[in-house]
Amino acid sequence: MKTKKCVTGFGKNMPPSIKHVRIYFDQKGQSTEAADAFFKHYESGKWKTGKGCPILDWKAAAGNWIWQHRPEKPLTLELKIKLQFSNKTF
User: Fold this and answer.
1) How large is the average pLDDT for residues 1-21?
2) CA torsion sign, 16 to 19 to 21 to 23?
3) Of 56, 58, 55, residue with least CA distance to 21
4) Which residues lie closer than 8 Å to 58 by C-beta, 6 or more apart?
5) 3-state percent breakdown (helix, strand, coil) of the chain, nearest 5
6) What is the C-alpha R_g of the chain?
7) Does residue 6 have a pLDDT over 80?
8) CA-CA distance, 90 to 86, in Å (whole number)?
């Protein structure tokens, strides 16, 4: 019988580790402070949405966080491309 090894934080697994959140934010051109703020916000809310539903895909929530907290300036082509392809799994 095979034992399935459970690793959290990779892909969409919940909850993610702070290390994986920081890597994801870095890949999206965001600061460590933004990653920490995202992690602390959702960690304190036990990884639930504002309506109380559990978050099933932390990367989708992170993408929304980045979008909601973007500076008030036009998006560059590079950022548009990163956001467009951010949910691809390889």
Assistant:
1) 67
2) negative
3) 58
4) 12, 14, 15, 16, 21, 42, 47
5) 45, 0, 50
6) 14
7) no
8) 11
Q: Decide if 25 contacts 66 (C-beta within 8 A).
A: yes
Distance (Å) of CA 28 to CA 1, 7, 22: 40, 23, 10
| Pairwise CA distance, residues 32 & 46, whole Å | 21
- CA torsion angle 73 76 82 83 (round to 10): 40
Q: Which two tokens stand for residue 37?
A: 């703020």
**pLDDT tens digits, residue range 18-53?**
999 999 999 999 999 999 999 999 999 999 988 999
The answer to whether the beta carbons of residues 14 and 55 sit under 8 Å apart is yes
